[in-house]
Write the structure tokens for this entry.
Amino acid sequence: MANRKEHMEKENTRERNRQDYKEKLAQHRLSRLYRILVLAGCFLLFVLAFALQFGRHVYTSYDVMESVVVDKVANATDVPLGEGILTYSKDGAHYNTMKGEEIWNQTYEMQEVILANCRDVAALGAYNGRTIYLTNTKEIMGTISTNMPIRNLTVSQTGLVTAVLTDAEVTWINTYDKKGQLLYKGQAAMDASGYPISISLSPSGELLCVSYLYVDAGLMKTNVVFYNFGEIGANYNDHLTGGYIYNDVMVPYVQFMDDEICFAVGDGRLVFYKGAHAPEELASYLYDGEVQSVFHNEEYVGLVFISDDVNTKYEMIVYDKDGEQVGNYRFDIEYTDIFFTSNGFVAYNETECLIMTMRGREKFNGQFNRPVNFMFPASGAYRYTLVTDDGIEIIQLK
């Protein structure tokens, strides 16, 4: 009996020890979880505080992080192309990397240069000329010869080029491949389809949007038409998959944002279209003021008007690619260009710059250290590339 009693007491002791161990282990785990949650909460609060401070921070100057000397051509125009800069004038064009390295150089003689570009591909031709130079960030891809004077150009990222050509009676809208071969041939007459006043190819080159202006029974009308050069378009007459007629409206600007979204800007009307094969109207807006400028990238479209506020000169209404209005922004800077970033926009001229978020908060409003010909985003938050008469600078706001 005594042995059994001792045995039971030992079992009870071991059971109490096991329970104590489990309780201590649970308390340790809870304590560890609590410390992790506290640290995570502190880190989250730090991140939120940093983000709030970053969002409210206003930059007042900038540092030049990199600088490259590049010989400039007189009366030349600079545009971003891919990760470098395309410079063109009436005497020729060349492409430089951000390090100032020249990739290619093409000479020509053009009195009035027409430039069309899509991401890292560009087409250059002369108004009333008959030669088109197709380029990218690596090379001159080829030349396209036309048998009639050129009036307008558009290019896709895949290297297709559509040109508006005109002779004495008929205007032609021809599409060529990168080798200069004629792929699609169309014609327009004022007494039939009208005159093409704006054209745009989608980046893939599958879709072409054309804005035709014509007169019907004494009334001015615009027909915004979509052509499909893919397999689906082959089932339609002349590849025409659809069109939209706007009475008493001129639509002088159509533009693809990507392979599905296109927009059209007319007198008193902005229209978005969506569709990978046969775009349909997505959204439409009416306005009373006269559009001063149109700016866009793959995410946003901005229309600039004269402001009705006596305290500011300009107002820009911004829409996203879904056709939704993002906001209205008023500013006074006499801009020469405006471009969008991931969370805002930049308006600038030769001597001054305004940077504003989509929430309407000014991040920078100041002067450049030297005259700037062109500005565009560089890699990094609030880092930009400035093209000056002396070369190329990478700046970081501070």
About this structure: Residues 45-54 have pLDDT under 50 and may be disordered.
